[in-house]
Amino acid sequence: MQRFALIGAGFIGTVHAQNLAAHPGIEFVGIHDVAEARAQELAARFGTRSLSAAEVFDPATVDAVFIASSTDTHAVHLRSAADAGLAVMCEKPIAPDLAEARAVVDYVTASGVPAMLDFNRRYDRDHAGLQRVVRKGGVGAVELVQMSTRGPSLPPIEYLRVSGGQMADQTVHFFDLLRWITGQEPVSVAVQGSALVDPSIAEFGDVDTSVATLTLESGAIVEIDSVRRTGYGYDERIEVMGSTGLVESRRNRTSNVAVYGAGAVTEAGLHPGWFERVQPTYALALAAFVEALEAGHPAPATLEDGLRAQAIAEAATRALRSGRTEAIEY
Amino acid sequence: MQRFALIGAGFIGTVHAQNLAAHPGIEFVGIHDVAEARAQELAARFGTRSLSAAEVFDPATVDAVFIASSTDTHAVHLRSAADAGLAVMCEKPIAPDLAEARAVVDYVTASGVPAMLDFNRRYDRDHAGLQRVVRKGGVGAVELVQMSTRGPSLPPIEYLRVSGGQMADQTVHFFDLLRWITGQEPVSVAVQGSALVDPSIAEFGDVDTSVATLTLESGAIVEIDSVRRTGYGYDERIEVMGSTGLVESRRNRTSNVAVYGAGAVTEAGLHPGWFERVQPTYALALAAFVEALEAGHPAPATLEDGLRAQAIAEAATRALRSGRTEAIEY
Amino acid sequence: MQRFALIGAGFIGTVHAQNLAAHPGIEFVGIHDVAEARAQELAARFGTRSLSAAEVFDPATVDAVFIASSTDTHAVHLRSAADAGLAVMCEKPIAPDLAEARAVVDYVTASGVPAMLDFNRRYDRDHAGLQRVVRKGGVGAVELVQMSTRGPSLPPIEYLRVSGGQMADQTVHFFDLLRWITGQEPVSVAVQGSALVDPSIAEFGDVDTSVATLTLESGAIVEIDSVRRTGYGYDERIEVMGSTGLVESRRNRTSNVAVYGAGAVTEAGLHPGWFERVQPTYALALAAFVEALEAGHPAPATLEDGLRAQAIAEAATRALRSGRTEAIEY
Amino acid sequence: MQRFALIGAGFIGTVHAQNLAAHPGIEFVGIHDVAEARAQELAARFGTRSLSAAEVFDPATVDAVFIASSTDTHAVHLRSAADAGLAVMCEKPIAPDLAEARAVVDYVTASGVPAMLDFNRRYDRDHAGLQRVVRKGGVGAVELVQMSTRGPSLPPIEYLRVSGGQMADQTVHFFDLLRWITGQEPVSVAVQGSALVDPSIAEFGDVDTSVATLTLESGAIVEIDSVRRTGYGYDERIEVMGSTGLVESRRNRTSNVAVYGAGAVTEAGLHPGWFERVQPTYALALAAFVEALEAGHPAPATLEDGLRAQAIAEAATRALRSGRTEAIEY
């Protein structure tokens, strides 16, 4: 039985609270939030209690901390968990600034506590199925990868302004998937992008529609398109072509119902938003961390993985601005 | 908040215990089983307690009873719930014998307690999507219905010997779906069947592979094939052709991953067994009953629905033996 | 080089003329039609000439006759071909009356001329692919067969009145496919049908929507649904379940174009009519006959095959009227 | 009736000979080839005759010339057709060198003869369906285009050495499709590529696996991946995302047959080679040219279209070598 405390009682904290409460191998010790009332309300819903900041990091009652607070607080909580000798699972990113993130990872690594970054998309049923095919050689040597990450509608401009840009905010999840699927590091990246949905995005140097092209160590080529607003729902798709075949993680549909009419067949569409598609992945990621803790194995997605995805995103952001192919430095 | 007690701690009781514990509008009072140790073990797993038979039907502490005990005990528990004035949700069937089932339904109905039969397949995402299309006229007037219910492997012969036959044990769920999808009553049925998988099934007058053909009030025609052992997984499929189009609830696949090789594409297969496919439906059925209770609405699937499905199964069993088209008497 | 003469310059004669002209191993000698002007016009279009009835059966200039004239004339032309010692390919049916058809087949068989009945659906790309899987044991022993034959719109009532009924006019093609796919003879048949599209069809004892259920020698069960008017295009579908798997010849779509919109994906529909789907099969059937002639092999679909499909249709028509399972007598 | 002469009796000339012979509105005057015996043989097969070079361009007997000879002879034949005042349909490319191609196009255009470049992929059923959806606004304003052009196996190195490179030899067809589908001109292009299949390709500065990223006038972004050897057949796929939806021209399969086994469904694969997929497009392109000639309309794909696709390919080749985004100059 692992005793977990949760930090953060917002939208994503609520998702994690549900999973912490439901996992049979977890004792859900309590929830801390800077807004205490919010922590109390959420705690009541899942039969646990509100914690102070000090209680969260008390090794007498807590084995592991789940950090789901606002992005700018991840680093400090990671350091506290390391100081207290607690296992820690953390939402992305480690820290908005790459240099700071590196410092935190060094600190936590030196402490020796088990730490996992919540790259939940690795637990998408279909992406995981594709990864298994690729890693066991089911399509031969990887030669060409195509990924699409497309949201249904533009987030608010105020959010986008502080998001770090499309590469760091949206594409970064696919930079991680790419490393995980291929087992290779990308060495360079070029990006072409436009602000097609809302030209005001260009004012702060960002884009809403882009294509990143990466080259892997082996010379294999990768294209990742990122879209902020599709008009047709939430769309993720991956295909990996190798020397002997191709494997595809197809667009997900919301049902298997089809209506045949004169001249056309109307089938179920994509999910309306990202949450409807990725919801099952959070519980699976948590279960994987618990399993690793119980077995004494390394976490399936490490802070180092987080750093590397962030380093790719930083190079991609540079490439978008320079218009040139940029080398990726880890 | 509805206070539920559960009767039965076997396989299906365990499924219901999980859903009773997870439903935010349910207080899970406890579990009764003839094997008390089993009830205690299950109760411990879900943070509730073991109940005596008397405690289950105590209106001071219980609002609703969920009957998931062995088939031959459903009738007596239904009567007890009625006597105690408790709402009741019951696994199929009401009673193995149709006449006895009718008597129980009359008794419970007279008592006025809310009662729902757990026709969980009505909560299958795809079948439910198809039903909505049909009932809102999306394919015009129903003219031809095709249903497949096919299990992956033969149940044990000892089970089959007392199961009541393929029509009563397997096809009956689709007799209910048929009534629910079309909003019509079938008036006659003919059946052709064979014991192809295991000829010893024929010794007790049963079959493992069959086609039932029914005629609805409107003259629309229905074919339902039932198979005990497919060799390729658990297979359910429904299509409804109407005067203006066709709607299909397709075979479900376990993922959206496909591997393209020379000359062939290998895609994900069907579910290995029935439980993998229908698992999500139980929680949805329970939630629908709770919603009806809270709103004071009639249960979405009544005991009367159960009787009617059973009456069709009985006529189908007669038809299988007579080789003739049999009228269905409700 | 095989020298072919064609009898019949109507719609289907025109289809065959095109294929006779295009086949590199055929010398297209000419066309006969009772309406000579029509034969002349068609002959001009394909660079051949109009023939008298006598010229068609002249072994000095003709090796093979293709009979595509009206149904009631097939028998007499088959006898003439036999008398002249010419190979003969004939449109279905041999003769509307089964006894007469038997007499013609005996006569032609006794003459020893190569003869093929144009069961063109055996050359449908997908149905043929399914047949190969079944016959090489790809799904094990056949246990359950499901076939759908559904036309887009009701033929004229005057046509239906003299068509011989849905079993003989429409379902008969699938009785042949069934024998060809399974390599087995059906032994009995039951049929349920309704006149749902136009009740006046019932006045002459016919139906427009029906389900035929057959049992094969092995005990395997077959369901064939036949529909005159779908509302959503021309629909053929076959699936064969065996002891180890299932093979499906899916609905054909007119393209691979799909439009993803909010909440729904609109895909290409079915063919508007039968001809759009089956058109490629005629040339393939002709080519198969020519190949058999050149190699001295028996025709891939014999007149005897035609008799047997007709015998099944006759039993099915009896079953529709009697409401009972009827034995099939070949 | 249009009187056509064909130049070239090789593989692609044979394809065109077949279509010229089959088109009801064409009188197939004859065939010229530098190897006269080859012309004679092909002419005999399609009931026409061998022509001298002079006879091909004789306006007394010929209305239109189809140029299907070797690539380096297109330019001279185009000029001859212009001199003779004959309509001309020409295989791609106009001339290997862009400057020379421009000179030829100016020459032919000045002569006023109707001229069409055989961009046959515009007549692919599915790509054409997609184009119609895009051009009538079915997905809103174009924002992101994804195209895949992937051959099954590496052409001989000797061929690749003189092919002009992957952009000019393979991707060029998709540069044309891109302009035709979107109705826009690309303004810049960047390319990343590798020689993964055969490193010796890199010796002459070429690649076998590449991704070209283009920006259209509107800022819309395009990614085109080109692959010389897939290992899983011939693969073309296009999707166009617009401001309101997405339209997809899916991978083509060779049949609609699927086999369901334990754990997997095996479906039909892609075409073994390019010819199996594109074969029907040649006749459709020819028919479109004849229709334009008869109606006095401009050709549906002009020599100018050819120049523009070639200009994009030239910029893409520069971009592949420079590693930079290159402006496209028409």
From TrEMBL, chains A, B, C, D:
GO molecular function: nucleotide binding; oxidoreductase activity
InterPro entries: Gfo/Idh/MocA-like_OxRdtase_N, GFO_IDH_MocA-like_dom, NAD(P)-bd_dom_sf
Domain Gfo/Idh/MocA-like oxidoreductase N-terminal residue range list: 3-117
UniProt entry tagged with the keyword Glycoprotein: no
Keywords in alphabetical order: NAD, Oxidoreductase
Pfam families per the UniProt record, alphabetical: GFO_IDH_MocA, GFO_IDH_MocA_C3
Domain GFO/IDH/MocA-like oxidoreductase: 130-247
Family: Belongs to the Gfo/Idh/MocA family.
UniProt-recorded name of the protein: Myo-inositol 2-dehydrogenase/D-chiro-inositol 1-dehydrogenase
